[in-house]
């Protein structure tokens, strides 16, 4: 595993633990010679994580839209910066540049990116591990929502295995390195017979 894309907030959040964990995770990637791919911002958890990885001589690759660059939220000290026109192009390029994905706390954009990567894995379009770093129980209510979707018949129980949930960043990274893709072929084939 050479590159991990991290989706996270462009804000710091109210609890200092979010920034602390973003910094720790950035350093962890650099310390393991894993390049960080992310949204290219210099603000919020994104900027903290990028700076931490760079401070440990890590490679950091940003992908940002021209519009966001124009309003000066682009990080100016990255190893490499890709500038694209649309948010869809941004997600596609981050997906193509990455061997795996990790989700840290964030808002609408973070959830959009997370669920797109889970869906691409579910549809066997990609086969890349996804990890959720559940800092301070941030994702507990989201996990409860997914459990409810399973209970109500909208998500297959096995498909919860499409992503790994962990509170500890080092354990999460270990599990990503060992991840075995969830085979959803039978589920996809069931649509042909409907």
Task: Offer a few descriptive terms.
single chain; 194 residues; alpha/beta; Rossmann fold; 7-stranded parallel sheet; 8 helices; 46% helix
Helix/strand structural class: alpha/beta
**Number of domain modules:** 1
- Going by CATH, the architecture would be 3-Layer(aba) Sandwich
> Beta fraction of the residues?
15-25%
Oligomeric state of the chains present here:
single chain
Task: Please tell me what the overall shape is.
Answer: globular
**CATH topology grouping:** Rossmann fold
Any low-confidence stretches, pLDDT <50, length ≥5?
Answer: none
Biggest β-sheet: strands ordered side by side in the sheet: 4-3-2-1-5-6-7
> How much helix is in the residues?
40-55%
Instruction: Please write the string of helix (H) and strand (E) elements.
Output: EHEHEHEHEHEHEHH
Radius of gyration: 17 Å
Number of helices: 8
CATH class, please? Answer: Alpha Beta
Structure description:
The protein has 194 residues and is of the alpha/beta class. The chain is built from 8 helices and 7 strands. A 7-stranded parallel β-sheet has the order 4-3-2-1-5-6-7, with helices on both faces. Helix 1 packs parallel to helix 2. The longest helix is centred in the N-terminal third of the chain and has 16 residues, at 16-31. It starts with a strand and ends with a helix.
């Amino acid at each position: 595993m050479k590159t991990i894309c991290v989706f996270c907030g462009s804000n710091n959040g109210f609890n200092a633990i979010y920034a602390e964990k973003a910094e720790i995770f950035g350093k962890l990637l650099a310390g393991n010679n894993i390049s960080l791919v992310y949204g290219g911002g210099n603000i919020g958890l994104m900027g903290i994580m990028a700076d931490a990885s760079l401070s440990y001589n890590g490679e950091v690759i940003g992908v940002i839209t021209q519009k966001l660059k124009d309003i000066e939220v682009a990080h100016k000290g990255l190893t490499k910066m890709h500038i694209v026109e649309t948010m869809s192009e941004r997600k596609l390029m981050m997906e193509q540049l990455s061997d795996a994905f990790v989700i840290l706390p964030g808002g609408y954009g973070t959830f959009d990116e997370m669920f797109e990567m889970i869906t691409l894995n579910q549809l066997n379009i990609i086969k890349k591990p996804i990890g959720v770093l559940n800092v301070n129980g941030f994702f507990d209510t989201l996990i409860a929502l997914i459990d409810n979707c399973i209970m109500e018949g909208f998500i297959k129980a096995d498909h919860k295995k499409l992503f790994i949930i962990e509170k500890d960043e080092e354990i999460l990274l270990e599990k990503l390195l060992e991840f075995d893709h969830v085979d959803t072929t039978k589920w996809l084939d069931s649509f042909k017979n409907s």
